[in-house]
Design goal:
Chain lengths: 438, 299, 166
Amino acid sequence: MDWGLSLTLLIGGMVLLMAFGLPVAFAFLGINLLGAFIFLGGEAGLEQVARNTVAALSNFSLAPIPLFLLMGEILFHTGVAFRAIDAIDRLITKVPGRLSIVAVGGGIVFSSLSGSTIANTAVLGSALLPDMLKRGYHPTIAMGPIMATGSIAMLIPPSALAVLLGSLAGMSISQLLIAGIVPGFLMGAAFLLYIIVRCRLNPSLAPSYEVEAMPFWDRVKPSLVYVVPLFTIFVVVVGSILAGWATPTESAALGSVAAFLACLAYGRVTVKNMMVSLLETAKISVMVLFIIGASLTFSQILAFSGAADGLLGWIQGFDLSSFALLLAMLVVLLFLGCFMDQVSMILITLPFFIPLAQAAGFDMIWFGVLMLVVMEISFTTPPFGMLLYVMKGVAPPGITIGDVYRSTYPFILLELIVLALIVLVPELATGLPDWIRR
Amino acid sequence: EEVTLNAVSGFAEGTIFSRHFEEFIDMVNETGKGQVQISYKGGGGKVINPFELGDAVRSGVVQIGNLPGAFYTKLLPEIDAVKMSEYTITEERENGAWAYMNDLHMQKMNVYHLARQTECIPFHLYLNKPIDSPDLTGLKIRVTPIYRAFFTALGATAIQTKPGDVYTALERGAVDGYGWPSQGIFDLGWAEVTKYRVDPSFYRSSVEFIINLDAWNGLDEAQKKVLQDAAFEIEKGCEAEKVKSAAELKRQEEAGIQVISFTGADAEKYLETAREAGWAEFIKTNPENGEKIKGLLTK
Amino acid sequence: MSKLVSWYDGFLLCLGYLGGICLGLIAVMVSLDVILRNIGTASFPWLLESVEYALFAVSFLLAPWVLNQGSHVRVDVLVTKLPGKWAHRLDILADTLGFAVCALFTWYGSRVAVKAFERGELIFKELIFPEWWLMAILPVAGILLTVEFARRLAGHRIAPPLTEGL
Ligand code: NA
Ligand code: NA
């Protein structure tokens, strides 16, 4: 079958099943069964799909997902996360879009505590969204910043995804992790600026309310008590890797035990809230893992059918300059990111992109950061975006997935601008690791 | 009538253990015009999980696969012995070892053994802490089932990590070393976080070309010959591989990897431990025909 | 009948708790492994593989419970745009498709499990055990998922309560 037709059939079929309202995981499963029948040779192919799903999920590299989620859930159900967000809330005085700014600030803090964009989004979403909606915040200015800063968790270390990309692409992982810091903060700054400007121009987006006046010390003290000590979790996760005690995957386990111990130290741990944490971790992990299992198999069928190769070969056929080639690769990633998860994107594109990037003489750390930024953006690009679903999952019942989609558009635009900046000024990515190496 | 077979490699395209397979495919597509063609679907995890590739070839979802025996020990535990074989594949084809193993391939996993490649690439132990005798006590060594028995017998703490974690684990000292063929550590980027290589080499890597038995039986003699000729051509690559391995070892040294070379009694003990630990484990897991296979593969 | 339904829901919830405890255990055991390895006493070579199999088993065996809770995310752009009657028809279409997909998956999953059982092949890694132990999870999860979609068709649809207790 012609690759264009295969691509249309697989992607089109999947979009159709998703549009009917079939849960995402089952839409993938359904199209996998169809695709296997056509491309993997009938019934043997269908059995292979079942086996592939087993293989896709029996993977230690996926362990950080439930573990980082557990970290977030523990901080969350013990109430420690809320105290931390309250503390950050205290630091911020009256500004336009105040709670959205708290979301960005809190998001950046949690980005350095967890490697999971999903946990980050879930914590911020459930901590702040109800309050925002209650105070009459427009969904765009309420949910948009939460998902946008939620996704920064994969740029600012620790980051499960940066580790995965670095390992698969043979890049220096510590350098890649450090290279993500500046772009991550740059995005946070862009979001803050946007929120302030937008809410000043249109105050009805985020109705202002009175913030209690209090002395400086009262503002700062809660942060010293509830935010600063939490950074020991960051120290455990990053420190255990840097000291050579744990592999990056194992550090996620240490992180969740550290989160448990931190909450224990605050005297907030009960059997009940631990059981709830575990149950909620299981619920979201299973939802996410089931999608990853099904979508990895989908990507394999996409590769097997020749559709993926066809698409990439078609692009190579244009004989592009290195700048145009870079743009083409980023566009392909953005496109794939609308339909699949980050792990699948990495698996599908790396075999083509790494040789292409090396041949074009790109700085590989820079290229790795660009890939990470595009994957970060993909977390919120519809129709398939993991954070969109997490947001939908934690939002009150009145919010439709359409509301969630719409709230991300301005932030996707901002992220694209930051991406363009890094393309034009590579030092934004490479500067920090180069400086540290020196 | 021209038949098209599909093919998948267990390794990413263009990497060391895929390259000869890709040459094989090009050869078949050149000489097999009008008879048999191979449609290469690519390699590595993007097409199919490498550990599922053996199953896929058995069921015929994939018709030709390129993968090391270590990826399908579940289907054919006996394949593990190939790493310890003291004969080349050409010799094995003459002394009956290949025929015995191929029968097992056909009976147990419904595939025909077409060819073996890269059998002249041996394994080495790579370290980040120096040793002065064949004793790994106190060292954390990353293993796969290929090396586990041997390194444990030398006193190492065996550690399993995902391939993706190896770089960081080495960089940060979570593991002190690993086993790997003489080629490939540059491709993986591990060379930059490796300080020592231990000589002599032990065992050998080998990657098998297997074809689904129904697909094989469905070919006529001329078509089979196209595949077989190309396969034999690949099997002649041993000498070239030795040259490449030597070049790669030199490249490692130029990249600053120091050589810890055992000689005399130490070398003897090192290699003897490799042999004994490996065969002991093999015979334990294959009580029925373990001894028979050992007899076929050792001098 | 309603007793049976509540017993069944309780069974699914039990699976949920077991899965959660299993994930917590992974965090504890992996941490313990790291600590013991670094003080040089012991390590658990079987742990990595056990975690891998647990991830698969938890994902599959808890998926029916997650479906029961209405927590498998879905794109509801179309459903929320349509008038009530059509939205209901679309729901039925989606659940019928889900039922068919899971029934098919159960069928082919069972074939995989039966073949693995007949062949009796052992998985040869650090842990050695028959492959069918793993593959048997496919039809079990498949049946539970199919049942859940059937229940949704029969009108048992829980609105996503993911926020409970959050
Ligand atoms: Na992070
Ligand atoms: Na997306």
